[in-house]
Structure prediction request, 726 residues.
Amino acid sequence: MSESRRVISVIVENESSVLSRVSGLFAGRGYNIGTLTVAPIPNSQRSRITIATKGDERTLNQITKQLNKLVPVYEVVEHDEMVEKEMVLVKFPIEESLADIEALCGAYNGTIVNVGVSMFIGMVADEPARVRNFINAAQRYNPIEIVRGGVVAIER
Amino acid sequence: MEMNGAQMVCEALVAEGVKTVFGYPGGAIMNVYDAIYKQDGFEHILNRHEQASVHAADGYARATGEVGVAMVTSGPGFTNAVTGLATAYMDSIPMVVISGQVPQSLLGTDGFQEIDAVGISRPCTKHNYLVRDINHLPRILKEAFHIARTGRPGPVLVDIPKDITAEVAEFAYPTDVNLPSYMKVPKAKEEDVNAAVEAILQAKKPLLYIGGGAVLSNASDAIRELAELSQIPTVETLMALGVMGNKNPLLLGMLGMHGNYASNMAMSETDLIISLGARFDDRVTGKLSEFGKYAKIIHVDIDPANIGKLVNVNYPIIGDVKDAVEMMIAGLQGRVNTEQYNDWREVLARYDALYPQSFEDSDEVIKPQWVIERLGELVGEQAIITSDVGQHQMWAAQHFPFDRPRQWINSGGLGTMGFGLPAALGVKKAFPDKTVINVTGDGSILMNVQELVTASEYKIPVINVILNNQFLGMVRQWQTFFYNDRFAETDLSFQPNYKALAEACHGIGYDITTKEEFDAALKDAIAQDKVAFMNIQVARFEDVLPMVPSNGTLNNMMLPKIANPEKGEK
Prediction:
């Protein structure tokens, strides 16, 4: 069966062991985690764990069903129609062209967020595929460090 | 009412109706044991190893359907309990295990006897808790029992730091649970059942495939009624033996790796698999791509994750097996023609006549299958049988006449050697008037043999029938078939004196080499009312047959060499 990518939001009770229950389930049953982000949902006792994963249809089906069995899991949302964003921070040497990189960041919904003595930092928040393109484009400016965040997603 | 955490644990157990707790004390759980000392709401059985405590609680749960309870200390006490938790988890057995933990001030410091119990047990419990606040303890205990027994049952661990069991707070045991995130117990949908009923009416060769879930949901009567009403033949998994009752003419037998010929042929040729609380385990299906090749599948399961996990299902029904079967009965009543599957049953009857479950008996040496059949003749209906894991387990499954559910207690999913004796203690505590027999082997019995002492101390007279072939028999069998007779580390002919071992632990032992000695010893063991070892020398190289080699197809079985009336000597 062919593999496809899927973004899943897991709405969980905000308690100390819940992330290990979710990530342990993926590890123990051999499911893939591409990216994983977690943060509390404002004004609630719940957290949202957003996981980008891939697998064949049976596996993706199992992931949702097995997650639903975990006691602190309220809801598992398999995103279909969604807005999906990922963030990346890139540190460049000060010798590189600030103007060029600012324009590049601008093209990907980003900007320069910090300029220091020996380096400056660009930030981009965009769809995961476009973030990959940005990282490729940034290569020729000799990036010192690249930090990617995980995917966050919201239903349209 | 104010009390400390240890007393809360005792109060909660009494409120949950717990009569017997199996356990072993130690540093971190001492506060609770002090509270146990002062109460008389339940009895505590001191096993001689924590693994045995958990298996005993498990055996109690399997025999009664109630939640089994075990109690252990932190660190090694808990890690010894892990095999027990995993055993119960794989077979969906309702159980609550309470473990002590180091005081919260030491948590995370690698304190003496500290181990991350919640972390270790996460994949082998239905849920687990580390109690961080005395005020949460009553709620957590209530939830633990609720989670253990509802939906697809399973073991729940409650890990309690020592300072919490010492701390005093107000105690009121909750009457309800408030667990909004816990999966609602699903109810079978009318339209799903109706679709399944139509499929049954259309089918020419339907087959009821019954699993352990039928036992867990107490669906035996309903399933017998469904079979009777529709005249559909049935097969049972290892975990379902007794659901149909061995005398039922619609029962073909056990299917799978060591299933009988007719059952495996039925599964290979059916056009509609009606799965009731079974989960398509690899020991049942053999090679998946060939499994039920000509069949549509109705799958009834309380756990949605079981549906579509291994095979594609045409008619999923998510819900309790008993409810779903009762709905099916209502749907089929007056519509199903009991003659419509006559041809199919006839074919299967011919298969059964061709290769019945059989073995070649001997006058020179005791055959292990003879022991099981004789046991069936002598104690049959009134006994409850536990077993360990290996050849003896399969022979017991194949040859004992189980006539009701919960009469057959074994570790199916995890396959835990050392399960049988402690599980038998749990069963006998629940049913002191029943004869409880652990069918075991000379390999398995030594894993948890210390429980002879527990059995003697508490006067729990279970009988251990040791099918002694001086081999780790099932592994030896695989070595014979698949490893060219290289018996790597399976020769157990260096043996303890089993009779003396039993006697050293205040039990009674019998060395048995003839059929007459077996009959006499069994009679004596039942009369003696002591824990007994029946050490039976059986044919060393006997194999468990039929056998479908691992990942083989079900209709391609290795069969016993028997004189066959139709085909002659095979």
Q: What stands out?
A: The beta strands of chain A are 4-13, 35-40, 46-55, 73-78, 82-93, 110-115, 119-126, 145-155. The radius of gyration of chain A is 18 Å.
